[in-house]
């Protein structure tokens, strides 16, 4: 691992993610109808959100809380539009061809897109992303938080890995619900984005871990897309039946992927790469269904 001062590291990582958010906000403001632009903005929000969450101790907690509240509102606006795009894509994948359903979704998308545009205008005209870059400066002084970045990473990621594998074993069981899978999907995202935040520390050592996490997110995201679509087309029995058939196929794909890429031996390999956990505050283990949801809900289909 490369030796880095943690405070400087937090400055750089937070600044980079705020710059990315600023860029994606501008892109979406210019192209509010573009599904890819909305998706990319949501990804930028999630990455920033997890970064400030992990590095909360080095930042102004009050300002981070305020930023996350604003990000949540922006995410909800994006998600409402994205859900319509996802639902139409899922229905096509399920080979459902009733035009009336698609017309209803397109109408809903037009409505939600108008609301998103208003929110984007506020962010754009008030230069909110740029202002947050100035507000989220890392505090000076020691406060007991100095040290090498590698040491901090070793105190965070192995524990997250242990929780990921335990939660994944629950979600991959035959009787697991879409809600459980959704919770696990959010956990997998948090692990991936935290690992990305420490990417300069590990370098290429975690390349295979990242690829496995990306594949896992894709499988879980496909299931969540179907779950969100089922909510949106609940009144149409035919469409619901078609999507239900598709989601069963995707659940099988997820369970197969989990068994192939996330066995006990793999967990040991991951923890060996990420390092043994250092001193940290113990976090109680909770089942997926009991965890407080911070990063989305079952109706947010975008990955």
Looking at CATH, the homologous superfamily of the largest domain is CHAD domain
User: Percent of residues in beta strands?
Assistant: under 5%
CATH class of the largest domain: Mainly Alpha
* N→C terminal distance: 30 Å
Q: Count structural domains.
A: 2
CATH architecture descriptor of the largest domain? Alpha solenoid
Structural class: mainly alpha
Count of alpha and pi helical runs: 11
Order of helices and strands: HHHHHHHHHHH
CATH topology heading of the largest domain: CHAD domain
Classify the oligomer.
single chain
- Calculate Rg over CA atoms: 20 Å
Taking the sheet with the most strands, its summary is: none
- Morphology: flat
pLDDT below 50 for ≥5 consecutive residues: which ranges? 141-146, 276-299
* Mean pLDDT across residues: 86
**Percent helix:** over 70%
Total strands: 0
Keywords:
single chain, 303 residues, mainly alpha, CHAD domain, 2 domains, 11 helices, flat
Describe it for me?
By secondary structure, this protein is mainly α. It folds into two domains: 1-143, CHAD domain; 148-276. 73% of the residues lie in helices and 0% in strands. It contains eleven helices and no strands. The chain has helices at 6-30, 35-54, 61-93, 99-125, 128-135, 149-171, 178-197, 199-202, 207-232, 237-261, 264-274. It is flat, with a radius of gyration of 20 Å. The chain starts with 5 loop residues before the first helix and ends in a 29-residue tail after the last helix.
């Amino acid at each position: 691992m490369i030796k880095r001062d943690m405070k400087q590291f937090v400055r750089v990582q937070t600044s980079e993610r705020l710059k990315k958010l600023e860029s994606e906000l501008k892109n979406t403001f210019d192209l509010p109808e573009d599904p890819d632009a909305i998706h990319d903005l949501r990804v930028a929000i999630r990455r920033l959100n997890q970064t400030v969450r992990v590095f909360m101790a080095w930042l102004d907690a009050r300002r981070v809380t305020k930023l996350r509240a604003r990000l949540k509102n922006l995410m909800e606006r994006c998600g409402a539009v994205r859900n319509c795009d996802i639902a139409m894509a899922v229905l096509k994948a399920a080979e459902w061809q009733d035009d009336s359903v698609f017309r209803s979704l397109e109408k809903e998308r037009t409505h939600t897109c108008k609301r998103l545009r208003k929110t984007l205008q506020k962010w754009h005209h008030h230069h909110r992303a740029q202002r947050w870059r100035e507000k989220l400066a890392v505090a000076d002084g020691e406060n007991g938080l100095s040290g090498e970045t590698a040491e901090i990473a070793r105190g965070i990621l192995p524990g997250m890995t242990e929780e990921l594998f335990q939660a994944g074993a629950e979600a991959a069981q035959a009787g697991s619900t879409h809600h459980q899978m959704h919770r696990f999907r959010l956990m997998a995202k948090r692990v991936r984005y935290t690992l990305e935040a420490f990417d300069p520390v590990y370098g290429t050592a975690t390349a295979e871990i990242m690829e496995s996490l990306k594949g896992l997110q894709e499988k879980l995201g496909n299931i969540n897309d179907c779950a969100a679509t089922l909510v949106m087309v609940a009144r149409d029995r035919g469409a619901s039946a078609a999507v239900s058939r598709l989601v069963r196929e995707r659940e099988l794909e997820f369970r197969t992927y989990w068994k192939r890429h996330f066995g006990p031996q793999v967990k040991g390999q991951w923890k060996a790469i990420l390092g043994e956990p250092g001193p940290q505050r113990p976090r109680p283990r909770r089942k997926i269904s009991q965890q407080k949801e911070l990063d989305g809900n079952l109706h947010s289909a975008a990955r």
